[in-house]
């Protein structure tokens, strides 16, 4: 924006003073600087402040004193005296008018007819008209921006271009935005200012007067910016405006640059901000520009890399311009490169030193403090040329060659620099273009070979240029450059690179502490180029040996090596030879690694390190995941690589290893997170949230302190002693308690030998008179073991809790059995259902196996689907009319099976919540659920046997025998917690279960005990639309409890719908169905009215309508029906009259009838009496509620 070059911008000093409201700094500003900030300062001085402190009062006096001598303040005060509310209304009317007119500038409400030009009108206008003129012009530009669909335009506006009135227009603009923020969002105003001349100056003034909006404006401009800013005039103007903003607030420049990278917009701005950046403390190693560009091109984000590479490529296609950000960047990089060259080697920097230090060959040593910077520059130029396609100029190529052939000192950084230089020469041989340059490179290569041993010994590193030459031979080999291969191989004394590679010894105790080029780098590159499979050389043994020779901190090349090895096992080197693959690691070799880990012989020395075991675990999990992902391609090639058996996976302590890895995250790099990702995908039952929470309780600070208090010479109990204590229950309760308390002090890993004794004796704890403390302690020990060996522990527990009849048949379930049918977990001893500590364990296993079953079926479907489809396609070849593989049907069948499993589990658990006949006798006949006692009596929940006046005391208010704390109550709470989690994880389960229905007696429990059951309000209308009366009855009963529990507007609307449905069904149901439908749901109307009193009229109308329909059917049989209808009408019209004054007994009492009369009464007569009783319940509940 060169047109604003002569204007004075807000300085960084002034902006910081405004941002911090530093009055002392503001007073130090010059008059021209202060003039730019007057709109904000005047508003600050005149408006009532939110800060009422004494310090601000003093500051405000200083601001007023500061403003008192400025003449322009009077015009700003006059602007603030305008009625902005009326102005905003006129502006919105004008916007509507323009919108109707299609954006044309015909009529204007803000500005009437202009007699002169816009500038003259502005000069002669009063403050209100100035505001209207500026607002009208600004709104026109903003509307045009919206209608332009991203196409840039430059609006010619004399109001924003006249240098005489720029300050006054800026004042008006700032006041308008501050007083009308909803009409003029600052981001939209900023976007509009880009389309006028001097827009960057106006934008900086606007932001300086609203300093808190800096980040918001910058982010908005970047979001709306172009992906390549130097391609268009609009992009360059946007970049320049943002650059000016960052010069005004340099402390935020790096944050703005981060926004640029995040949005992948305006790459030139990111480079420009880096060029402008001046750090407080200069980093002698690497400059900010090198760090920034290297991070973009060599980072892991491919989107960012592609975006910036396009910026480089597009920038080279334009003519070289000094104003281009790309050429500024290249010039800066070249200057940095020349600055670190040895003086005798640089042709651009004059040599003002002594020439005696130079050797006769013209070579000079690279200074040690410049080696790291030189390496960074070489890597950056490699990235620019290789990734971004940069074509170096002759000057750049010459200076790069001078730097590459510099001779660094014999340090580790020097070894790295030589390696980079050599690789850059191989990657970009076009840098050498003249015979002199070729001779220079030959001399340098000769020096490198000559100095190899000296560098290795003097630098103290294990890097070898010989290994690097092997790596070079491998690169050439992959490119099939036979002449160069022969040359390099003859130099190394080898004929075949791959045959030599497998004979190279593995690196002992390989870790990240060993730097330089190693055999693993060579093997990795050969695997990538598929050299081993092409030449039929087996590399499996070498990789297995190297994985066994690893240590922490983990070497960064190990995980990529495993990934490329897995790819070479599953994917053939070429379609022509589908058998050209590597061999996988055998199951026996894998078992050898884990034979002394958790669950094995813990007394012996662990042969393999935890790093080896974690890497092998990563290999297995990644292999299985890639095998599933490649089934389609493998099916097309008629290949089916072998999967590792379930028996092998059962013997690997996956959870124990991942727990160990959690404490070594810093040393394992990204291995821990990679393992968690694989577990979450393939073993979701090992990633339960409650397991992680329990793990914190087991491995936290308090358990650690308790273990530290455990004396080293304390008595250690054996597994047989523990088993004997279980067998002698209940007489051995004290001894068993001592043993279990001792075991709680052990770590989960030390508990593993006791796992079998603990689980095998669980059935003994179901006997009566076993202390509750023993059960709770066993639960705690089980949860601790669950953190290290969950799968094996679950199988042992399920087998131990089988009913005694099954134990006689010695039926032992396996892990696979439980994943195929998770409901086996619930086929346990019935006594477990009334033992809360053991029921907690059963529910934990059930949740885990339901998740495991989902993953198992998904894998099974993916394993077989592609091969079945391929075989069916081959068999159907040439047969017309054959359908394709029923892929959708298989997926639907799987989903149906999973839904059936989940719903069956929920239904079984709900049945467990029902009290048995013995419990009902103990708790009382009226106790339908223990949780109902918390909620109190539900309105309308009256006994069906009493059609006369209700007895409201005694049984319903009595607490069940034994109080609320009982085994049934605790089991109900545990089950409700699990159902809550299941409903949250998959709301479709809740829908399916409620469409199936369950006993009405459980509704108080489920509604009060499952917080997520409110989602049923979403599908109750659908349930009401079902044709079965039973489902409609269940829906209304469920809704009545939901309305009482969740009195929400949504509940009210669904309740209205239910009343409407009941009224509709009244007109279509037969006499028998009418009785069976309304008798159980009439009490629900009481709950509706109690939750939502506005429904009283609708409910009363429905009840009268039901009574009239029934009365019409029995008019000839029952003579007291007409008086009953009259009573109903009276109750509907005057409900207050039904209750005596003072809350006494009912004035309109129900007639007493004998049981024989009720038993032999007509169904319609019974329904009439039930309607009247419901009326009385509603009135009584309403008045008692008042």
TrEMBL record:
<dbReference type="GO" id="GO:0032039">
    <property type="term" value="C:integrator complex"/>
</dbReference>
<comment type="similarity">
    <text>Belongs to the Integrator subunit 2 family.</text>
</comment>
<dbReference type="GO" id="GO:0034472">
    <property type="term" value="P:snRNA 3'-end processing"/>
</dbReference>
<feature type="region of interest" description="Disordered">
    <location>
        <begin position="934"/>
        <end position="959"/>
    </location>
</feature>
<protein>
    <submittedName>
        <fullName>Integrator complex subunit 2</fullName>
    </submittedName>
</protein>
<keyword id="KW-0539">Nucleus</keyword>
<dbReference type="InterPro" id="IPR029321">
    <property type="entry name" value="INTS2"/>
</dbReference>
<dbReference type="InterPro" id="IPR026236">
    <property type="entry name" value="Int2_metazoa"/>
</dbReference>
<feature type="region of interest" description="Disordered">
    <location>
        <begin position="1136"/>
        <end position="1160"/>
    </location>
</feature>
<dbReference type="Pfam" id="PF14750">
    <property type="entry name" value="INTS2"/>
</dbReference>
């Amino acid at each position: 924006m060169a047109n604003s070059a002569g204007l004075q911008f807000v300085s960084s000093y002034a902006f910081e003073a405004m941002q911090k409201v530093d009055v002392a700094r503001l007073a130090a500003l010059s008059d021209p600087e202060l003039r730019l900030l007057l709109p904000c300062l005047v508003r600050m001085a005149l408006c009532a402040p939110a800060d009422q402190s004494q310090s601000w009062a003093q500051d405000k006096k200083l601001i007023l004193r500061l403003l008192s001598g400025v003449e322009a303040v009077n015009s700003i005060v006059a602007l603030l005296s305008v009625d902005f509310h009326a102005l905003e209304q006129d502006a919105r009317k004008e916007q509507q008018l323009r919108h109707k007119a299609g954006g044309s500038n015909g009529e204007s409400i803000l500005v009437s007819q202009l007699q002169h030009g816009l500038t003259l009108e502005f000069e002669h206008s009063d403050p209100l008209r100035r505001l209207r003129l500026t607002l009208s012009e600004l709104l026109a530009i903003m509307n045009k921006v919206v209608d332009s669909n991203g196409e840039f335009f430059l609006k010619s506006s004399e109001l924003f271009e006249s240098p005489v009135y720029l300050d006054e227009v800026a004042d008006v603009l700032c006041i308008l935005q501050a007083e009308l923020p909803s009409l003029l969002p600052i981001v939209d105003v900023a976007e509009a200012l880009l389309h006028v001349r001097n827009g960057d100056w106006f934008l900086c003034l606007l932001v300086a007067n609203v300093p808190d909006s800096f980040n918001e404006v910058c982010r908005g401009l970047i979001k709306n910016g172009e992906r390549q800013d130097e391609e268009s005039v609009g992009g360059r103007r946007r970049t320049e405006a943002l650059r000016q903003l960052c010069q005004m607030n340099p402390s935020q420049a790096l944050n703005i640059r981060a926004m640029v990278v995040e949005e992948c917009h305006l790459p030139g701005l990111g480079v420009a901000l880096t060029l402008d950046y001046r750090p407080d403390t200069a980093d002698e190693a690497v400059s900010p520009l090198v760090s920034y560009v290297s991070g973009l091109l060599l980072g892991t984000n491919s989107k960012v890399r592609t975006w910036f590479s396009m910026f480089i490529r597009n920038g080279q296609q334009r003519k070289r311009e000094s104003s281009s950000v790309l050429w500024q960047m290249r010039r800066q990089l070249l200057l940095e490169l020349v600055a670190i060259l040895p003086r005798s080697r640089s042709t651009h920097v004059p040599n003002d030193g002594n020439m005696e230090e130079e050797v006769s060959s013209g070579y000079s040593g690279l200074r040690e403090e410049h080696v790291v910077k030189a390496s960074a520059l070489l890597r950056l130029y490699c990235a620019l040329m290789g990734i971004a396609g940069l074509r170096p100029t002759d000057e750049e190529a010459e200076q790069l060659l001078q730097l590459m052939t510099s001779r660094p000192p014999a340090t580790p950084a020097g070894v790295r620099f030589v390696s980079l230089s050599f690789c850059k020469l191989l990657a970009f041989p076009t840098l050498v273009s003249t015979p002199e340059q070729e001779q220079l490179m030959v001399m340098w290569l000769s020096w490198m070979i000559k100095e190899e041993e000296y560098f290795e010994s003097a630098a103290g590193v294990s890097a070898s240029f010989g290994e690097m030459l092997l790596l070079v031979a491998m690169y050439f080999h992959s490119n099939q450059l036979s002449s160069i291969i022969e040359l390099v191989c003859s130099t190394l004394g080898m004929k075949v690179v791959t045959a030599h590679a497998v004979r190279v010894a593995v690196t002992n105790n390989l870790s990240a502490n060993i730097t330089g080029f190693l055999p693993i780098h060579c093997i990795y590159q050969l695997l990538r180029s598929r050299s081993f499979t092409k030449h039929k050389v087996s590399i499996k043994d070498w990789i297995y040996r190297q994985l066994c020779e690893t240590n922490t901190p983990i070497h960064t090349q190990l995980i990529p090596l495993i990934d490329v090895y897995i790819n070479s096992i599953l994917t053939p080197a070429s379609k022509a030879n589908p058998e050209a693959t590597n061999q996988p690691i055998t199951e026996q070799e894998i078992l050898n690694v884990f034979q002394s880990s958790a669950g094995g012989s813990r007394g012996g020395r662990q042969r393999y390190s935890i790093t080896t075991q974690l890497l092998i675990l990563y290999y297995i999990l990644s292999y299985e995941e890639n095998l599933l992902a490649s089934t389609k391609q493998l099916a097309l090639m008629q290949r089916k690589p072998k999967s590792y058996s379930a028996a092998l996976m059962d013997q690997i302590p996956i959870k124990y290893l991942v727990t160990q890895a959690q404490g070594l995250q810093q040393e394992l790099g990204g291995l821990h997170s990679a393992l968690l990702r694989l577990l979450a995908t393939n073993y979701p039952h090992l990633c339960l949230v409650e397991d992680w929470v329990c793990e914190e309780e087991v491995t936290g600070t308090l358990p650690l302190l308790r273990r530290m208090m455990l004396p080293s010479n304390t008595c250690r109990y054996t597994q047989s002693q523990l088993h004997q204590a279980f067998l002698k229950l209940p007489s051995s309760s004290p001894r068993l308690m001592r043993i279990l308390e001792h075991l709680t002090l052990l770590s989960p890993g030390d508990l593993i030998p006791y796992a079998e004794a603990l689980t095998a004796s669980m059935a003994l704890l179901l006997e009566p008179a076993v202390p509750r403390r023993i059960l709770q302690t066993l639960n705690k020990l089980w949860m601790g073991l669950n953190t290290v060996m969950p799968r094996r522990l679950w199988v042992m527990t399920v087998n131990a809790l089988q009913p005694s009849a099954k134990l006689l048949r010695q039926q032992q379930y396996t892990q696979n059995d439980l994943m195929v049918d998770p409901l086996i977990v619930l086929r346990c001893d019935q006594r477990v259902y009334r033992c809360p500590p053991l029921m907690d364990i059963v529910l934990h296993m059930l949740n885990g196996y339901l998740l495991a079953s989902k993953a198992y079926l998904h894998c099974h479907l993916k394993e077989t689907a592609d091969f079945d489809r391929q075989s069916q396609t081959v068999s159907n070849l040439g047969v017309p009319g054959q359908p394709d593989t029923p892929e959708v049907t298989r997926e639907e069948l799987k989903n149906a099976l999973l839904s059936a499993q989940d719903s069956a589990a929920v239904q079984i658990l709900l049945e467990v919540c029902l009290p048995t006949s013995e419990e009902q006798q103990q708790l009382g006949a009226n106790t339908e659920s223990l949780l109902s006692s918390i909620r109190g009596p539900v309105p309308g929940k009256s006994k069906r046997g009493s059609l006369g006046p209700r007895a409201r005391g005694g049984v319903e208010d009595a607490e069940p025998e034994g109080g609320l704390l009982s085994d049934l109550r605790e089991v109900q709470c545990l089950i409700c917690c699990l159902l809550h989690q299941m409903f949250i994880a998959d709301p479709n389960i809740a829908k399916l279960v409620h469409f199936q229905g369950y006993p009405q007696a459980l509704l108080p429990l489920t509604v009060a005990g499952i917080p997520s059951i409110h989602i049923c309000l979403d599908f109750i209308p659908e349930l009401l639309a079902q044709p079965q009366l039973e489902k409609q009855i269940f829906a209304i009963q469920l809704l009545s409890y939901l309305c009482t529990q969740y009195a929400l507007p949504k509940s009210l609307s669904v309740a209205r719908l239910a009343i409407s449905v009941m009224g509709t069904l009244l007109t279509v149901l037969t006499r028998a169905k009418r009785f069976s439908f309304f008798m159980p749901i009439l009490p629900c109307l009481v709950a509706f009215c109690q939750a939502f009193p506005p429904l009283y009229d609708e409910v009363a109308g429905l009840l009268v309508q039901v009574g009239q329909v029934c009365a019409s059917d029995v008019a000839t049989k029952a003579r007291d029906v007409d008086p009953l209808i009259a009573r109903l009408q009276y109750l509907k019209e005057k409900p207050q009259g039904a209750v005596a004054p003072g809350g006494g007994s009912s004035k309109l009492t129900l007639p007493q009838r004998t049981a024989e009369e009720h038993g032999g009464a007509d169904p319609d007569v019974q329904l009439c009496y039930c309607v009247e009783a419901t009326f009385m319940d509603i009135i009584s509940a309403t008045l008692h509620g008042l």
